[in-house]
Amino acid sequence: MVQKVEIEGFDAFIEQVDKFKPSGKPIFVLFSGSKDANGKSWCPDCVVAEPVVKGALDKAPDDAIFLYVGVGPRDFWKDRNNVFRTDARTKLKSVPTLMLFGGPQRLEEEQCAKADMVEMLFEDA
User: Does residue 46 carry a catalytic annotation?
Assistant: First the structure.
C-alpha cells in the first residue's frame, strides 16, 4: 500500500526525501499551493488536481511513497527566486506539479487533473 505523507515547506520536503531515498522505493511528489486554515489551497488548479492525483494512487506501485508538499503562501510561490523554483532537485515552474523524484517523469498544471496522464505516470514508475 502506498505510504502517504503530507508536509509543508522545502526543508520538510528534503528531510522526507532523504529519509525515504535509501529504501529504493519510488517517491512520487505532488507540489501544491499551501492550504489555509480551512484546508483549501490558494491555487485553483491545485484544488482541481488533488482529488485526481490521490484517486489514482491505486495505480502506483504498492511500495511507493507519496509526498504531498505545500510550497508556501501565494506571495512566496510567486517569488521567482524561491527555493522550489531554483533548487536543482525540484526546478518547479508551476503548481501543481506531480513528479517521480529523481526521474524525468513530470506533469504540470492542468496535466495533473487528467486521470489518464496521472495513472500513466504512476504505472510507469
Answer: yes
Instruction: Note the CATH architecture for domain 3-123.
Output: 3-Layer(aba) Sandwich (3.40)
Q: pLDDT of 81-101, one tens digit each? A: 999 999 999 999 999 999 999
d(CA 25, CA 16) in angstroms, rounded, equals 13
Q: Where are the domains of the chain?
A: 3-123
Please name the residues in contact with 75: beta carbons below 8 A apart, sequence gap of 6 or more: none
Determine which one of 2, 43, 98, 100 is catalytic. Answer: 43
pLDDT tens-digit map of 14-49: 999 999 999 999 999 999 999 998 999 999 999 999
Cα–Cα distance for residue pair 8/42, rounded to 1 Å: 14
